[in-house]
Amino acid sequence: MQIAKAEVLVASPGRNFVTLRLTTDDGFVGLGDATLNGRELAVASYLGEHVVPLLIGRDAHQIEDTWQYLYRGAYWRGGPVTMAAIAAVDTALWDIKAKVAGLPLYQLLGGASRRGLLAYGHASGMDLPELYASIREHLEAGYTAIRVQSGIPGLPSVYGVASSRNAGVGDGDPRYDHEPARRGAGPVEEAWDTRAYLRHVPAVLEAVRSEFGPELVLLHDVHHRLTPIQAAKLGKSLEPYDLFWLEDVTPAENSAALRRVREHTTTPLAIGEVFNTIWDYRQLFEEQLIDYVRSAVTHAGGITALRRIFDYAAVYQIKSGVHGPTDVSPVGLAAAIHMGLAIPNFGIQEYMRHSTETHELFRPSYAFADGMLVPGEGPGLGVEYDDAIAQAHPYAAAYLPVNRLRDGSMHDW
Ligand code: GCO
Ligand code: MG
Fold this sequence. Notes:
By secondary structure, the protein is of the alpha/beta class. 36% of the residues lie in helices and 18% in strands.
C-alpha cells in the first residue's frame, strides 16, 4: 500500500491550522496536525517543499521506518518546525493503519486502559468575581478539573486570562477567546510585573480553594516567567491549596533550574509543551524533577515519538498531561485522546474546546461528558476534514503576544 498523494492544507476557522492529508493508492486517507502557533507557514513550507516529495511511493504501513527516515535522514535533528512536520506524517500514517484495520486508533496502541480521560478546562478572570463565574461555568459544563488564571492588579491584561476586555478576539466562544491568535501585522505587547504576580496569586488560589472546596482538581500555569528561586517560593506558598500541578514555572530549556524548585516544594510540577524530543526530558526524568509530561503529539514528533517519551516517563512514575490548547487542531487532540485511553501512565488531558467553526471543519468524533473525554469508536483517529469549509476560512497571519517588563525589557513567557 503506497502513499499516492500528500497535501498540506492551511485554513483559519478562527485561528490557523496546518493539516497534512495522505492518500494511499487504494484510497485510504490519513490526517496529521502540523500547527505551530504563530509560525504556521514555516511548517507548511517544510512539509510541502522537503517532505511531500519524499513520501510519494513509500509504503504507508512502514510507520517506524518513515519516522527514522525523516528524523535521521534530515541530518538536522529536532526543533519545533522539523518535529511538527514529522508528527504530521506519523499521525496520518497511524490514522491510515487503523482505518485499514477497521479499528479506532487506541486499539492499535494496546486497547483501552480506562473508561475515559480526565480533562481540565481553562477558567480565568481579571478579578475574583469574574474568575468564580468562569469556574462555575466550567463546573456546569461537567469539568471536575480546572486551570485557574487570574488578572494581576496594575496589569491591564494577562496572558491566559479572558475578560470582557479581550473577549470576542478569536474563537467565537467568549470563555476561550483569550487564546491570543490575535490578527495583525505584529504581536500584541503585554506588560509584566513578577513581584505583583507573586504577591497576588497565592491569595487567588486560597480564595478559590475556600470557595469551591477540597475536591475540585485545580491547576495553574506560570508560562515560564519565573527564576528558579521565585518558582521555589511560589510552589511553597501554594502548598496549602493542594494543586494538581504548577506548570512551566521556569523557562523550559534550563532543566537544572527545576532542581532548585524541587528542593523547596512538594507542589507537583509539569513542563514540556515547548519540547520536541525525548532528549529534552532526559535530565528531568532521570533526576525525577517533574511529575507530568506536557508534550503534544503535534510538537513532539507524533504518536511514535510521544509513546516512547511516555514509556520512559513511566520508569520514574511520571505521568502524561498532554498539551491541548485550541492551537493544537482536533487532529492533534484526537491523537492525544486515543493515546491517553491506551497508555498505562495517563495523568490528565488539557481540553480547552475548539470553536464551532473549527469543529465544522474537522468534524471530530471524540466527545466530552462528565469531566471525561472519549475518542469515539469509528476507524482511525475519527476526524474528517471538510475542504469546502476550509476554503471559506483562508490563512490570516496571527501572532502570540510578547511580554515586556515595565521598563521595556523583553521577558520570558
Ligand atoms: C497551555 C499553553 C497555551 C500556550 C499556547 C501557545 O497550557 O495551554 O500554555 O496557552 O501558550 O498553546 O501556542
Ligand atoms: Mg501551558
